[in-house]
Amino acid sequence: MITTEHYLVLSAILFTVGTIGVLVKRNPIVIFMCIELMLNAANLTLVALGRHFGQVNGQMYVIFALAVAAAEVSVGLGIIVAIFRTKETINIDEVNLMKF
Amino acid sequence: MLILFWILALTCVGASIAMVVTQNPVRSALYLVITFLCVAVFYVMLSAQFLAAVQIIVYAGAIMVLFLFVIMLLNLGAPQALRERGTLQPFFAAVLGTAFVVMLLLSNSLVALSKVRPAAPPEVYVPLGTVEGIGKNLFDPKQPWILPFEITSILLLVAIVGAVIMAKRRIQDHTP
Fold it and tell me: What ipTM goes with this model?
């Protein structure tokens, strides 16, 4: 018997792995992948809780989160390409255009 | 069913940890595909069939192709392209991550959702996740989803234009 708590614990672990990845990695593309992982964990929570309460609203939120994630990735990767063309590197430590 | 859940959960968490640990961005992307596919199977097990299909098409298809395309374009496939510096940062990240996951698990187990409120029976939630159920709810005038749906189309348009502009423009380098 799989309870809703199983899914909640799993998505908590996935979210934490994504958070650690964002903190540790130097490659912005991998950081984006970790953000996608965190979004997926949140989506899993929404779907599991939607099933638990017998409502479809959780899945609706997931559809909109998918659209936002797709938009975010396309713009973010465009920014990474632009930074790479300007600075010839995308190491997150050397990209400090916005540092005052 | 529970055995399937555990196999998939271990695969999912293992692939995500491997994604963070490995130094090669291409391998990170492929491990992330494994994670996405596991999440899609979880959606099927949660009787959200439409979302499972969308997960595979959009995430494992479109977004991962975009990632791999950018990695290929920027020639970051070599493992030595971005060597991580040896700092204390992974240690602190591991400590903070452990604290974070303990906090999340405590909040989950303290709620004890199934005891406070039992889960809905299958005849309630099974028809919700099909294409028919999703579509009827998404375009139901009594539900508040039509306006977000229209705004999402504008968001995607803005994202298309923004991606084209960001990829075309050359950022001015202000560093001396």
Answer: 0.91
